[in-house]
Amino acid sequence: MVQVRKATYADIAGIQKVARVTWNHTYEGLIPEGIQHQFLSQNYSNEAMKRRIERSLLLVAEVENKVVGFINFFQLKNRNDAELGSIYIYPEQHGQGIGSKLLNAGIDVLNGVSNIFVNVERLTTSGKNFYTAKGFKIINEYDEDLAGNKVKMIRMVLQLKSDV
């Protein structure tokens, strides 16, 4: 059974492992391994993870007391919107509803948010398909420089409340 809860410092190693495994699986052939390693080392270091736990909404999904996925939201400044910074689940756990549980739990905690924005690598069909199935709409496409590697990105939004 899947349990979703707020992350604690004790979850850092589990989150780091999920990030490493899923990045390698998701971006193989799209982002060079060295750039993946550099990104993960910076953005998933112990210090970076402590800051995420303290300053953002970081939820983990557990199966049998083992972290199998996580989702991270950041409140956007001066707006009633949030950014979905990351959602990763072990590849062997895909298709079991864990991503949906994480997203729905985040939406519940972010009660009152009007929009959730996310950036997704254009060629990762699993990510794009997941967000589309959850009601996210593409609002633009752009190129991002990731340590000298050009990555084609899509910006999507999930509108939770109408501005009317």
TrEMBL record:
Q: Name one GO cellular component term.
A: ribosome
Q: Which Pfam families match?
A: Acetyltransf_10 (PF13673)
As recorded in UniProt, coiled-coil segments are none
Q: Which Gene3D superfamilies match?
A: 3.40.630.30
Record keyword Transferase present = yes
Descriptive protein name: Ribosomal protein S18 acetylase RimI-like enzyme
Q: Which domain of life is it from?
A: Bacteria
Residue limits of the N-acetyltransferase domain?
A: 2-161
* Keyword list, A-Z: Acyltransferase, Ribonucleoprotein, Ribosomal protein, Transferase
Lineage at the top is: Bacteria, Bacillati, Bacillota, Bacilli, Bacillales
List the molecular function annotations (GO) for this entry.
Answer: acyltransferase activity, transferring groups other than amino-acyl groups
Q: Write down the CDD domains for this protein, in alphabetical order.
A: NAT_SF
